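sorry to bug you again but im stuck and you know this stuff better than me. below you get a single protein, a line of residues and a line of whole numbers that encode the local backbone shape. mainly i need to know what kind of three dimensional shape the backbone takes. anything you notice is useful, everything is just below:

***
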Amino acid sequence: MPTPPKSVDIIKFEKKSHRTKKEYEHREKAEKELYTGEAMREKDKVKSDPVAHKEFMRLRRLFAKIGKDDGLHENIINRYCELYAESFELVERKNAIVGMLDELDERGGEMDFTESLRNRLRLYEQIGAAERQLHAKREMLLKIEKECLMTTAAAMRAIPKQPPKADEGLETMFG
């Protein structure tokens, strides 16, 4: 798998590039044009869901800290928050079904064996369906996390491989 392209800041930091000053300037200008300068906005659907809203606010705060709170990211982050809230609801639904199973165990003597078995089978089928849906949502969440610097591996790809020399710091690199 090829490595993703590096930003101008990382290329300058590594000081191993064959690029000319003109190429650096062109690339830096192109990178800056990728950002709108507008903060991410929360969609109405995310705002109305307390779980999704809380996750959006948390992510927006974190993205702002690393300078990535940009309007271009808002759709994917809103979608991520919706999926996150749906996953949360699926876990709650699965837990409720498990609670019904426990209740069925407590009522063991109130119904005949075949009826109890039928009810138990239906509940297990519902748990399986919830698990399958939850698994699909979690896969989608992970894919978004990998693309949006929300996993350690994704964040590590953006870090230069070589440390700065003792006499140079970030101030000299960007100053």
